[in-house]
Write a structure and sequence with these properties.
The complex is a heterotrimer of chains A (296), B (319) and C (671).
Chain A lengths: L3 H23 L1 H23 L31 H7 L2 H28 L1 H16 L2 H12 L3 H28 L2 H9 L3 H38 L10 H9 L7 H28 L10
Helix pairs in contact in A: 2-11, 3-11, 4-7, 4-9, 5-7, 6-7, 7-9, 8-9, 9-10, 9-11, 10-11
Chain B lengths: L1 H28 L4 H6 L5 H11 L5 H13 L13 H36 L4 H15 L2 H15 L23 H27 L2 H8 L4 H13 L1 H25 L4 H10 L3 H29 L1 H4 L7
Helix pairs in contact in B: 1-13, 5-6, 5-8, 6-8, 7-8, 7-11, 8-10, 8-11, 9-10, 11-12, 11-13, 12-13
Chain C lengths: L6 E11 L5 E12 L4 E5 L6 H7 L9 E9 L2 E2 L5 H7 L4 E4 L3 H4 L6 H12 L4 H14 L5 H5 L8 H13 L5 E5 L7 H18 L2 E6 L2 H7 L2 E6 L2 E7 H6 L4 H8 L38 H5 L5 E2 L5 E2 L28 E10 L6 H5 L9 E9 L3 E5 L6 H9 L6 E6 L3 E3 L8 H6 E4 L3 H4 L6 H13 L3 H14 L16 H14 L4 E5 L7 H18 L2 E5 L3 H7 L2 E6 L2 E7 H6 L4 H9 L39 H4 L4 E3 L5 E3 L6 H4 L1
Parallel strand pairs in C: 3-8, 3-9, 6-7, 7-8, 15-20, 15-21, 18-19, 19-20
Antiparallel strand pairs in C: 1-2, 1-4, 4-5, 9-10, 10-12, 11-12, 13-14, 13-16, 16-17, 21-22, 22-24, 23-24
The chains are: A mainly alpha (296), B mainly alpha (319), C alpha/beta (671).
Chain lengths: 296, 319, 671
């Protein structure tokens, strides 16, 4: 009991997270979504020990083979086992976006909160710059950087985190505006707390929910962007298995070997739908209207 | 209100200006320039300097920016890196095609979204809503290239109803694109429709819970009339902006769709130009796309202003 | 009672299904009968089910609620069994509703005229061309100025009072025989409220309409109703003629409720009703009021009492109703301790002016006139241990002055000095920690002023850490002590605000302010979000803390009776200008400024034998006139054109009673 006040808050926060989680899995969309997401995460972690075949083993003998007992989802145009490649195909995407998403939400969130609190001219100018960045399609921004600097993790993670943090600024700023008008922030101002104190104590706990939902959505869009880049041939470089790339490769043989696209299509879709269902359920649990938000 | 209008216009102009600066600065910051791209391995020594002088690349950055920006305002983007084609005409054809694809999809997608969204909102948590909302989540979240691939597989390969790929050239007349344009349109429409209908749905639900809808009910207004006169005018107002944002967002998505279907639009040109490091063309496309984005949002703001009595009559606030 | 009447609700039980799947009743076995032309008041605090009952009378239930038993009959037809089309034909026609918040109940996208026209089209035989004339006629009947142009306006272009009148006009469109009014004057200014009530009274009399008037405001009920039904926890606890119900109520709850209302002509604090009403589903088979009742005995808890005759023509749900007039039902309030009379000034405001928005750079460069300031020429002093009440209608600048004192809004001109002659800098950022500590602010709505993510312990720790550097055990001990001081107890430390009732939350906010050991506490409408019975307890607490600590209060409220109960001195503001300031007794007994007279005249007392005196039009003015007296346009005693040209002179009536008016006051007349 020596340090009672700080320790008293943690059980509260933890209990709240537990309550949210319980509420989340009670909703059908939350339960399905969370299962899909956790399943994918688990698979991404364990797949190197689960795959029945070497994902890069080329075989001229079994090109574009039909599904059979040996190759459950058939083989691709280089004779590689599609099932193994599907199991492994999400690792790169999940790992890169899994790091870039929290980074994006953090930097965008902090900048947004700061400018939402400061307001005035600085805020006006910042919002114009944010608008200008948003006016350029994401794919253009990404492609230019990738073509110039390559597709290593060290390029992709900061690039994704930077560009996907910009729309977060908007959301965090709007959420902050809602909170700043509340009397408890005014009360803290009137007591004479420093600005940083107000941000950490009064604003962050209340903007956190909006950022949490935003983070889930950012993640799904980032995955979408990542796999679109791979599909276009600007993402993961072969022979590393990746769903986007696999779909692009298999597309050319779709008329006589359609099973090639089905595996990666289902894998990618189920992950993104899982994330979105979770985000939806989370938004409802936290009382945030997600549909009102534009996808920028 | 006129003041507000001018303010919005000025802000829009400012945004376009900032975009142009970002584009220019972004390209400046990339290693290499048009001459290194053009000369490739021979880009060194005297040849490089000559080339730079010829293209005016030895000028300071702000002078080159002014030169580029003033050209862009007059619709002159110079020629591409290879020096073979005038960018304005190259981009013009592609822009026309992309606008046709986007415009036709909107023509189908927006009304469809409104109808489905209103139905879902009115039947909240019942079967029609659950069906529509679930389908919307699928349409919205699955990547465009996946949807496209599946549609091609089903409608082109298995059923053989429509061609799965566009073979018509970039400068063909509009009618030549039928029926090839149908599948790309379908993908475009699906994604757009899903986003918009979700907003419509939640907006309708919000308005249905409002005090004034309860009041109208207690005034004895029949259900149909409540929806028509009290719900829709208020529920559809915020949708205008979301339509704009969705359209603007799809300016990015169109790249993927056009590539999948081999559609000769602006998006595919963009990918090709980037791959070939044709930076002048990339700059031109970026500026055009950004201007469209700003323009669409500006239009939406103004439409909202016109449609919303609260904003329209701002000057007569208090009696 | 046997006559069925125009509206006849019998044994109605309405509820919702809780998370645990059990049904929870919001209304329990409610009977309500209204005869043609009769006006019934429905009284109760928040959560008593009165609004649900009013809507149920139209056969309408909010989403999630369902009927669990009983019937609702209007002119013999069972509204609960009617098909939708038949219901539509009755609603808005023979039975109309006037909603609580017309600003939200009028469709924002439709002009006022169109909304009235819609009602006429549905419920009157008039042809389209006759309806336009009828719309104007209706707007005229509700005494709206310029009815032609009103019809063309959108709801947001009307003031709150005008919106309410438009809603009344809409209800009248169908020529109803019965009118349901759901808190129709809540949220309106006192003068506007009085005018709207007079209008409703006149209309009901003229047309012989029956009325069901739902309100928490017994003053309004006393003015409009013939009979009163008192609701508590979803039940009718008392019902009877208005005079008996308000003079000598038989039910302990009704008695307590009545005692907790501050009166304009009473000195001293109202008495508080302790405890809180049960939540839906919380009441078992006992009397719902038993836990708060001083008369409760074992048989009250054994079974729910039935409604029985109270001997004065009404019904009461209490086993000991015949004893309530001889025994106290609630604890007596302590008499208010007067402020210790020292001459030490706790607050001096000298020539304060506040401007809301700084004019834009462009406007300033173009030499545009910024117009009169929001608040101007405010000069006053407050002694240590005194409470100053600031009163005025919305837009009077009372909250603005408070914000400026708190440093949230830097003044454009003037000096603010606190105890010891310390001048306070304008903005909060420029004040020293000690200056900040001395002035504390309590807000209107504790839901908004307590961070929902912090525990009560966290909330109290903030000023304690900031001003006194307390940590660890000392911090917790002091927090617990503060909670005890506001009668809450240390076990609240780990709770979240959402787990507290409104009154408890406001106590935490008070404890937070007193944690700083302030010299001056600023209270911004601190009781207006609370129910009356809770309000009385909070007022009592505030006054106790003031007396104990020698703190000075600036107390802002739109409720004159509340200000009367708590204040030593009162300042009356109109459009940001000081009209009159003086000792509370002198000012309430002999108001000298015409605006003070207007305000006091409009106050409704919970007594059917009093009537408001309406002296001025209820116009909402946006900005003060450029020159002369701020009240010149509404003044009922305007002496002449001098009011439009000259600043009113300051007249000192002695004993600190100061007036700003052109009308000369004979000091002798005041004695």
């Amino acid at each position: 009991m020596t340090d009672a006040a700080p320790s008293a808050r943690h059980p509260g926060a933890a209990l709240r997270m537990l309550a949210i989680l319980r509420d989340l899995v009670r909703r059908p969309s939350g339960a399905v979504g969370l299962t899909l997401v956790l399943g994918h995460a688990l698979l991404a972690l364990l797949s190197p020990w689960l795959v029945p075949h070497d994902v890069t083993a080329v075989s001229a003998l079994s090109m574009l083979g039909q599904p059979d007992a040996l190759h459950w989802l058939g083989t691709d145009h280089l004779g590689r086992d599609i099932f193994s490649r599907v199991l492994m195909g999400g690792r790169e995407a999940i790992w890169i976006t899994g790091i870039a998403t929290p980074l994006a939400v953090m930097w965008g969130g902090l900048v947004g909160i700061w400018f939402g609190l400061v307001g005035g001219r600085t805020d006006d100018v910042l919002m114009r710059i944010v608008d200008a960045f948003l006016a350029l399609p994401w794919i253009l921004k990404m492609l230019v950087l990738i073509v110039t600097f390559g597709t290593g993790d060290l390029v992709l993670i900061p690039t994704l985190a930077f560009f996907y943090g910009i729309p977060v600024i908007r959301i965090a700023r709007a959420a902050t505006h809602d909170v700043v008008a509340r009397d408890y922030v005014q009360a803290a101002r009137a007591r004479g707390h420093r600005r940083l104190d107000i941000i950490v104590r009064e604003l962050l706990p209340n903007v956190r929910d909006a950022l949490l939902v935003e983070g889930a959505m950012r993640w799904s869009w980032m995955l979408l962007a990542f796999s679109s880049l791979s599909f276009l041939g600007f993402g993961v470089s072969p022979p590393t298995p990746d769903w986007g790339l696999m779909i692009a490769d298999a597309r050319g043989f779709m008329s006589f070997a359609p099973w090639g696209v089905l595996g990666p299509v289902i894998a990618l879709s189920s992950l993104i739908i899982g994330i979105n269902l979770t985000a939806d359920a989370l938004a409802r649990t936290l009382g945030i209207d997600r549909a009102q938000k534009a996808p920028v | 209100m006129l003041r507000m209008l001018f303010r919005r216009l000025a802000l829009g102009g400012l945004t376009v200006f900032l975009v142009s600066v970002i584009i220019f600065a972004g390209v400046e910051m990339l290693p290499g320039d048009a001459c290194t791209a053009y000369l490739e391995r021979e880009a060194q020594g005297q040849r490089l300097e000559n080339c730079r002088r010829d293209f005016g690349l030895d000028q300071p950055a702000h002078a080159r920016y002014l030169d580029w920006a003033s050209g862009a305002i007059q619709g002159d983007f110079g020629s591409n890196v290879a020096g073979t084609r005038d960018i304005a005409t190259l981009v013009g054809d592609r822009l026309k095609n992309s606008l046709m694809l986007g415009g036709l999809s909107m023509l189908v997608g927006v009304p469809l979204a409104l109808v489905l969204g209103v139905i879902a909102g009115l039947t909240r948590d019942r079967l029609p809503d659950l069906t529509i909302s679930t389908l919307a989540i699928f349409a919205m979240t699955i990547p465009e290239f996946v949807t496209a691939t599946v549609l091609i597989l089903v409608f082109s390969i298995w059923l053989n109803w429509v061609p799965g790929i566009v073979l018509t050239g970039a400068s063909a007349p509009a009618l030549d694109y039928f029926p090839e344009i149908l599948l790309p349109m379908a993908v475009f429409t699906l994604v757009m429709c899903a986003h918009i209908l979700r907003t419509v749905r939640s907006s309708v639900i919000e308005v249905l819970g409002s005090d004034y809808v309860q009041m109208a009910t207690l005034k004895g207004v029949p259900r149909g009339q409540i929806v028509r006169r009290h719900v829709l005018p208020n529920a559809l107002l915020p949708v205008i902006n979301v339509v704009a944002l969705t359209v603007a967002w799809l300016l990015g998505g169109v790249v993927v769709i056009e590539t999948v279907f081999n559609f000769p639009g602006l998006g595919r040109l963009m990918v090709e130009s980037i791959a070939m490091r044709d930076l002048p063309t990339v700059q031109a496309i970026a500026l055009i796309v950004a201007t469209i984005y700003v323009g669409v949002n500006l239009t939406a703001d103004m439409l909202t202003m016109l449609a919303n009595p609260r904003l329209r009559t701002l000057h007569t606030r208090r009696p | 009672m046997s006559s069925t009447g125009i509206l006849d609700i019998r044994d109605l039980t309405v509820g919702f299904t809780g998370r645990d799947g059990r049904g929870r009743a919001v209304l329990r076995n409610v009977d309500m009968q209204v005869s043609p032309g009769e006006s019934l008041g429905l009284v109760g605090e928040s959560g008593s089910g009165k609004s649900t009952l009013a809507l149920a009378a139209m056969g309408y239930f909010k989403r999630g609620l369902r009927v669990m038993g009983g019937s609702v009959r209007f002119e013999g037809q069972d509204l609960l069994a009617l098909p939708p089309t038949a219901l539509q034909a009755i609603r808005g026609h023979a039975l109309a509703l006037i909603p609580q918040n017309s600003g939200q109940a009028l469709t924002p996208s439709m002009r006022i005229g169109a909304q009235l026209d819609e009602a006429l089209r549905l419920h009157s035989p008039l042809a389209a061309e006759r309806r336009a004339a009828r719309v104007v006629e209706l707007l005229e009947q509700v005494r709206l100025p310029e009815p032609q142009s009103m019809a063309r306006r959108y709801p947001h272009e009307l003031s709150g009072g005008q919106q309410q009148r438009a809603a009344i006009a809409m209800a009248l469109a169908g020529e109803p025989r019965a009118l349901l009014l759901d808190e129709p004057t809540t949220g309106l200014d006192v003068t506007t409220q009085a005018h709207v009530l007079e209008l409703l009274r006149d209309l009901a009399r003229e047309r012989g309409m029956a009325m069901v008037y739902v309100s928490h405001d017994l003053g309004a009920i006393a003015r409009v109703c013939d009979r009163v039904t008192v609701m508590y926890a979803g039940e009718v606890v008392q019902s009877g003629p208005v005079r008996a119900a308000l003079r000598d109520p038989a039910h302990p709850y009704a008695r307590g409720l009545l005692a907790s209302i501050p009166r304009l002509h009473d000195t001293g604090l109202p008495r508080a009703l302790d405890g809180r009403p049960p939540a839906p589903g919380e009441t078992g088979a006992a009397c719902a009021f038993a836990p708060r009742c001083m008369l409760a005995e074992p048989r009250c808890i054994a079974a729910r009492p039935a409604l029985q005759p109270d001997g004065s023509g009404g019904l009461v749900r209490c086993l000991r109703a015949d004893e309530t007039d001889v025994r106290p039902v609630i604890a007596a309030a302590a008499p208010r301790e007067r402020a210790a009379l020292t001459d030490e000034a706790a607050l001096t405001i000298d020539d304060l002016a506040i401007r809301y928005r700084q004019t834009g750079l462009v406007a300033r460069l173009m030499g545009q006139d910024p117009g009169p300031a929001t608040v101007s020429d405010v000069t006053l002093t407050l002694r240590r241990g005194e409470t100053l009440g600031l009163v005025g209608e919305s837009g009077s600048g009372k909250s603005t002055i408070l914000k400026s004192l708190a440093g949230l809004l830097a003044p454009a001109r003037g000096r603010i000095t606190v105890a010891g002659g310390v001048a306070l800098p304008g903005a909060v950022e420029t004040r020293s920690p000690d200056q900040l500590r001395r002035v504390q602010l309590i807000f209107q709505n504790p839901d908004d002023s307590l961070n929902p993510r912090h525990t009560i312990g966290d909330i109290l720790a903030q000023p304690l850490r900031l001003y006194f550097g307390l940590e660890g055990e000392a911090l917790r001990a002091r927090s617990a002590e503060l909670l005890e001081r506001v009668r809450l107890g240390a076990h609240y430390l780990d709770r979240l605000p959402s787990q507290l009732s409104g009154g408890e939350k406001q106590r935490v906010a008070i404890a937070r302010a007193f944690a700083a050991r302030p010299d001056l506490v600023l209270c911004d409408e601190v009781t207006s979000a609370l129910d009356v019975s809770v309000q009385a307890a909070v007022l009592d607490l505030l006054d106790e803390l003031r007396a104990e600590n020698g703190t000075s209060f600036v107390f802002v409220s739109h409720d004159l009776a509340v200000v009367r109960a708590l204040s030593d001195r009162v300042a009356v503001l109109y459009l940001g200008r000081l009209c009159e300031i003086g000792p509370a007794e002198a000012l309430f007994a002999n108001p000298a400024h015409p605006y003070t007279e207007v305000l006091l005249g409009a106050v409704l007392e919970p007594d059917p034998d009093t009537a408001p005196v309406l002296l001025a039009r209820d116009v909402t003015e946006g900005a003060p006139p450029a020159r002369g007296c701020p009240f010149q346009r509404r003044c009922p005693r305007k002496p002449g054109s001098i009011c439009e040209t000259d600043q009113p002179p300051v007249q000192d009536l002695g004993n600190g009673h100061v007036l700003s008016c052109h009308i000369p006051v004979q000091t002798g007349a005041l004695q």
